[in-house]
Structure formats: C-alpha cells, structure tokens
Write the structure tokens for this entry.
Amino acid sequence: MRTSFAQFRLPLLALVLALASTGCSSLPPPTNELSGARQAVIRAEGADADQYAAQDIGAARSELEQAQAAMSDGREDDARRLALAAAADADLAYAKSRDALVSAELNQRRSEVAELRQRLQTGDGR
C-alpha cells in the first residue's frame, strides 16, 4: 500500500507551525540593551546632563527604571523597547550637555579675544 502526501500534510503543517512559533520567541533577554542604557545614562550624567538637559536625562532614568521592572516581570519585549528608548534619551541628553559646554567655552574664548582686541586698540598693556 502506498502512502499519499495527504497523510503527511497535517503532521507536517503542525511541525511547521510549532517551529514558527518557537522561532518568534527565541530572542535573547535584553541584557545588552539594559547595560547599554545604563552606560548611556552614566555618560550623560558625567557630562552634567542634570544641569543642561534635565528633562532628557530624567526621561532616560525613568525609562531605564521601567525597563528594569519589565525585565523583572518577565516582559522582555517591553524591557528591550524601554531600554532602547532610555539609551536614546540619555544620548540626546549627553549631546545637549556637550553642546552647552562647548558653546559656553566658545563664548568665553570670544570674550577673551574681544578683550584683547580692546586692549590693543587702546594701548592698554596691563
């Protein structure tokens, strides 16, 4: 007696569906994303983000806390999404802080140049 393809179709379909469903949940835990978010927050804090980008660093800290809570609750997709958002907000806070610091330094140098020009024009050599 010959076996037909129809006899294998249902078990084959079940196997394909089982493999597909396990493939969707095979992402590793978002430990790298959480670590990256923590490092981004620390980097922003080191650049005085609390002073120059308080709202952005606050959002990053909040998202990082939420990501850690989601990870503890086993909600890895939420943890991953929140960790990536935290890292992005922390990077934005870092960039804004660096911009503010560089702008302040530039303004200081311009002021020094203007003062030196004034001294040269008036002959004040102090």
In short: Residues 76-122 form the longest helix (47 residues). Residues 29-97 form one domain. Residues 74 and 89 are 23 Å apart (CA to CA).
